[in-house]
Specification:
globular, alpha+beta, 2 helices, 3-stranded antiparallel sheet
């Protein structure tokens, strides 16, 4: 496995710079929040604390399997990119 937060790629987009990196456990909360804001998933997913436990378990299963890779995109300051609503 690669080191936590290892940058896999950097790319510019609309006068900003972003990086693709391996997800870490602290990314699970923002991923759950993002899923909960999606109109198609809102009826199924929520950002409630009890919903995070299965997501954390899934993250650990993915992270432990060298055949899988969960990535996130953030800016060079480490801030998650937030889509416009």
């Amino acid at each position: 496995m690669t080191a936590a937060n290892a940058v896999l790629a950097r790319f510019p987009l609309a006068d900003q710079h972003f990086r693709l990196r391996r997800a870490v456990e602290s990314d699970v909360g923002p991923i759950v929040d993002l899923m909960a804001r999606d109109q198609l998933r809102a009826a199924v997913d929520s950002a409630a604390p009890e919903r995070r436990a299965p997501c954390l378990a899934a993250f650990h299963a993915i992270d432990a399997d060298p055949a899988h890779l969960l990535c996130v995109v953030d800016d060079d300051a480490g801030q998650w990119w937030q889509p416009c609503s």
